[in-house]
Design a protein that fits this description.
18 helices, globular
Length: 449
């Protein structure tokens, strides 16, 4: 008996190693498949990349970083009526999250400045990795048998691939959010005895995603509520998990905070722009079914004329103050307008006739949204497993709609990994239903025989 017990101990690690190696092979194969599909989509366009004024700004910051000037821009960029991009005299210095300029600097350091084609290859790699993490999340939520569904839906979503061709933060941020959802799913799976490693990684991922775009900065009350609910309102346990996540987020972000405080003598959590959009998004006169444009018919020209006389930093403060004042003065209207912007802009599918460009596969966007909406309804019956997806989707869409007036196509991208997982729930439910019907049919046939 002792010998058998010892033999069993020897065999278990070997079996575990075999399973681990098999898992790595599957992950590697999935990554290669995703990589191939992303490259095929890239090759379907005549251009190898797209660039915009924002992309040139990020590129300028990356180049200055490599030249030893730090994370600063030394030029501004604009697109004229002839659609030609031009560098113009420096009008203001932008502070942006450091992660994307660092990625550009990494590429430029290896391949030279303005290697935009290589940047898009990096986007392809990140997009393929996002699909793999969607598969891993699917394993946790649906089991290995159905994990291919979110993997396939992620690869098939055309807006991910299209915006990945821009030298912009979209692909990097979608990757960060996909990773965030994967770690959140792991935490949901471990909630009775969560691993410290999972909590620490979740904090790191939130911090990194904020340093790409700061849209999870306001997520902590939602995160705290979710953790408390998952622990059955056991405050002590929930507080322990929440504090570990917050501390790691602070550790990741604090070097950027310190840098900004030292350089600009003011607290800048991530970036120093966006107040104008915040003002426009919350001006009670702003039309809620038109995208953000500088000449919105409802924009108050007198306010703009007054504020533009101020220094740039004072303009940011004044626009922020005005936006907050509008919200306080019109709280009910603020809520009504936020919901209207969600409905009229954020959750509207891409319409080809309203695009300035032709996106391949854009008709699929509507069906992804329909699947996600049905998934929201089904997930209400499985809140313990899918509640984190509902909370994130609600939080992100409300925050973006609250802050500004934007076209949903681009600004909806970061919430789509959650929508795709909810849509996958619909597909999995249908497959399970079909399997059940077929199984019952076979068993009845067997009894007749």
């Amino acid at each position: 008996m002792d010998k058998q017990y010892k033999d069993t101990l020897k065999i278990k690690p070997l079996a575990s190693n075999h399973v681990s190696r098999t898992g790595l092979w599957i992950t590697g194969l999935l990554f290669l498949i995703a990589l191939g599909i992303r490259f095929l989509y890239l090759k379907s366009y005549n251009a190898s990349y797209f660039i915009s004024p924002d992309g040139l700004l990020y590129s300028n910051i990356a180049e200055n970083f490599l030249k030893g000037k730090g994370f600063v821009n030394t030029a501004n960029f604009m697109q004229g009526d002839d659609n030609i991009l031009r560098a113009v005299a420096l009008m203001r210095e932008y502070v942006v999250g450091p992660i994307y300029p660092l990625l550009l600097a990494f590429v430029y350091g290896l391949f030279g400045f303005k290697s935009y084609g290589i940047v898009i290859v990096l986007h392809v790699v990140l997009g393929a990795a996002s699909a793999v993490f969607a598969y891993k999340t699917g394993e946790i939520l649906f089991g290995k048998r159905y994990a291919w569904i979110p993997f396939g839906l992620t690869l098939g979503y055309p807006l991910f691939a299209f915006w990945g061709m821009y030298v912009l933060t979209e692909t990097t941020y979608v990757f960060a959010i996909t990773l965030f959802l994967y770690i959140s799913a792991r935490y949901t799976n471990e909630v009775k005895r969560p691993k410290v490693k999972t909590l620490l990684i979740l904090g790191v991922v939130i911090g990194i995603s904020n340093l790409v775009r700061p849209l999870l900065l306001l997520y902590f009350p939602v995160l705290g509520f979710w953790i408390l609910w998952m622990h059955g309102w056991h405050l002590k346990t929930a507080l322990r998990d929440f504090c570990l996540i917050v501390v790691m987020t602070i550790l990741v972000m604090s070097p950027w905070w310190i840098r900004n405080e030292v350089k600009y003598h003011q607290s800048i959590p991530v970036s120093n722009y966006g107040s104008y959009e915040f003002y426009l998004g919350n001006n009670p006169l702003t039309i809620t079914n038109q995208y953000f444009v500088f000449n919105q018919p409802s924009y108050d020209p007198e306010v703009k004329a007054r504020v533009e006389k101020l220094p740039i930093l004072e303009q940011e403060k004044e626009y922020k103050r005005l936006a907050a004042a509008y919200i306080i003065q019109h709280p009910v209207l603020f809520l009504q307008r936020t919901l209207a912007k969600e409905k009229n802009l954020f959750w509207q599918p891409v319409l080809p006739e309203k695009q300035d460009y032709r996106m391949l596969g854009d008709a699929l966007d509507k069906w992804y949204l329909i699947l996600g909406l049905i998934g929201v309804f089904i997930s209400l019956f499985h809140l313990k497993k899918f509640g984190f997806l509902l909370l994130f989707t609600s939080y992100y869409s409300v925050v973006v709609s609250m802050i500004t007036v934007v076209s949903g196509a681009r600004y909806r991208l970061p919430v789509m990994p959650a929508v795709i997982l909810l849509g996958s729930l619909v597909v999995v439910t249908v497959f399970k239903g079909l399997v059940g019907v077929l199984s019952r049919g076979q068993s009845q046939t067997g009894r007749r025989v």
